[in-house]
Amino acid sequence: MSGQSRVMRDIAYVSQEAWLRNATIRENILFGEEYDQQRYEEVLRVCALKPDLRILDAGDRTEIGERGVTLSGGQKQRLTLARAVYSNRRILLIDDCLSAVDAHTGKHILMECLLGQTPLMLGRTRVLVTHHVSACMPHADYMAVMHDGRVTACGTPDEVQSQGSMSCEIQELELELIRKQQAEQAVCDMDDRAEIDAAMLASVNNPRSEDDYMAEILANLAEQRGADPATIDPVELDDMLVEDEEREYGYVRPAIWIEFLRMCGSTQFWVLMAGTLLLENNASIFQSYWIRLWMNSADGSGSSSHSVVFWLATYTLARTSTMIIGQASGVVRKTGVLRAARLYHEQLFARVINATPRFFDKTPVGRVINRFSSDMSDIDRDILSNILEMASDIIEVISMVIIVSSVIPPFVAIAVFLSYAYTRLSIYYMGATRELKRLSSVSRSPMLSLISEMVAGVESIRAFGAQSQYIVEIMNRTDLYYQPDYLISAARSWLGMRTSLSGSVVSFSATILILMNLDRIDAGLAGFILMYTNSFSSTMMFFVHRYSFCEADMSSVERINQYMLLDQEAPAFSDPENAPPSSWPSNGDVEVQDLVVEYVPGKPVIHGISFTAAHGEKVGVVGRTGAGKSTLSLAFLRFIEAARGRILLDNVDISKIGLEELRRSITIIPQDPVLFNGTIRFNLDPFNDYPDELLWDALKRSHLVSENNDVSASSSGTASPAEVAVEDPTNIAGRMSGIFKSLDAEIKENGQNLSLGQRQLVAMARALVRRSRLIIMDEATASVDFDTDDRIQRTIRGAEFSDSTLFCIAHRLRTIIDYDRVLVMDRGQIVEFDTPWNLLQIKNGVFKSMCEKTGEYKHLRSIAQSKYDRKAAAI
């Protein structure tokens, strides 16, 4: 066990799906390690993070939100890589860190981080899982080729090539490129090595101090704003994405109470509720008074004018009536509880589900869970019951005062004095418990957020051996959560001691008054009065407790009402005069006019871009990580509303129509595909709109099933959900992993039983099923091997997508090199937009430079030229 722990402490893991903490960039990189300025700066350099930090207002102090929502896919991947590199672990397990970055950044990471001979990487074993075989193979000391969970070849690169086991992973042209690349790469590396060594020497001899680092951030922020660095307040560097959870202070506003009562029922409901409460209370008083009459009915000899049966039967009838009235009151009460809970839940769900994406960026999931769990639980269980019991206590107290005062008038003065004392106690008590309840509600959210974060990143946490760190943190957050509850219990004990003392005063005073009036108070009446005076103090205590509970629980309603004010997305459907035709879009013509997109007001991410795409055109979108490519795709679906400009789809301004009308007409295949817990059929066609044959065809074209799969047998649903078709080793399609035999095959939550590449293929199949006129692919094949990617691209170029306008965001330039046009973006602007061949003719062009840095320039150029020649011949 000690040996295993020692090994685990020596491993750093970079997962294929980047897992990040809801913290700042620096905290994510350090991950509990001590801060070393020199080492930290070098990590930022080798992981190519410095250019990204320069465009952030707060640099590495920027908060990235849950799951790194404010970062691009490439930035998230490099941040997780930086976390592993910064650690002092000697073994680095890196799962495909190059798939989400552009070619230039990928080369930098490969040469400076993974292969760098800096002191940072000396003596460290680097195990890399990758599809970028042509780039990595020349530099590997050892290789292992895997297929179906087995190692099919291993050894040095030359030994693996000689075994002939890489025909599926590397095409013949790639093998030729690999042979040439070592010499070409050596020349390129020599050109950069002097500059790299100089930078390394400078960082070692002149490490920046924290003051220098702060000055640089202030200068960058001032440059962005066009201001003097001296005018920038350092407090502004705390770019806190996640704000403190909102919390009210003081008494719960009357409007909250009124709204809750209205949710419980109409006026008729409250009249019925008040009637049952009065009947129940009066029936209880009648029972006690009936016993007094029974006792006084006996004469001196002990006989009574009525039989025991009469008195007992009447008492039983009164008791039974009280129980029936109580049950009826309970039914009416539960009706109100269910009505209020249902309405609040429906409204809360509608407001959250239609909230703007910005809300989810800056709101931890724990806060949302807290509203739907704990706060809704208070409405389901406590609030209305406490309100009605409090009303019952008021009625009971008033009845007691009236009854006792009618017999002993001086008791009125005692009741008034005690009411004043209880009022003062309750004000003092409720002022504390109300705020403690609010603190308890607020402190629950961080605990829930941390738990969800731990569940999502359990592999990384275990790989880094950070369990103890998280255990300490969850214990600290749990302590913070229970501290208010402990103080609430202490406050209740404080109130109980004082109300018990007050109750003794009431009982003592009533006894003295009875003794002073024995001449007109019989024994039965004296017992009746003493019983009620003894319960007076407990009833008053219960009233104070219940009112405090109501006040505290109404803070849950208060918190739910806060979410009723969330900013909402646009309506799902437009007004009839703005509604698009039923056949829209019929072509897929796209025109973007002076588009400006902002996540935060005043801080544009896309700066006034304009371009057009014709029907059926295939447009590749490329650019450095963080250039705004994914933001552009979100703008098409209006997940981010345009701050200025517009997007026209078939001459219809998409900002004028409903979101449902827009989004059902566009298909997006995201970089991080979302799958649902269910079957393959449900994930492809959740509304059962398409026949099984079409679903199977989409799966085949996405290479998720083999070509010889028996559709008729499989679609019957008789096969086991987990069954997988037996593959023919000679069938290339059959070698694809994740080949399902039945449309009822299970997909677990978030697709956990599939690899990231397989999830991207399922998302691709979903797009094939919908056959939208506009399709957006955001790195949709980044995590699949090159052979599968090539086959998918042939599918895209085939008849299935011939009538669809396609935007493909890609870091693999070979993916889009034969597209109709390529859109090159940098820092939210279009720097080049033309056919691939024309872009390669631009001297010192950005796209040409990107192709050159891949090490495959000749191959890419030949493909682009072939595309150009075919098009010219067709004309």
How would you explain this protein's 3D organization?
This protein has 875 residues and is α/β, with parallel strands linked by helices. The protein folds into four domains: 2-237, 3-Layer(aba) Sandwich (Rossmann fold); 254-563, ABC transporter type 1, transmembrane domain (ABC transporter transmembrane region fold), CATH 1.20.1560.10; 590-672 and 774-874, P-loop containing nucleotide triphosphate hydrolases (Rossmann fold, 3-Layer(aba) Sandwich); 676-753, no CATH class. Helix 27 (786-796) links the parallel strand 14 (774-778) and strand 15. Helix 12 (267-296) runs antiparallel to helix 13. The longest helix has 49 residues, at 467-515. The model is unreliable at 1-7, 167-207 and 710-738 (pLDDT under 50).
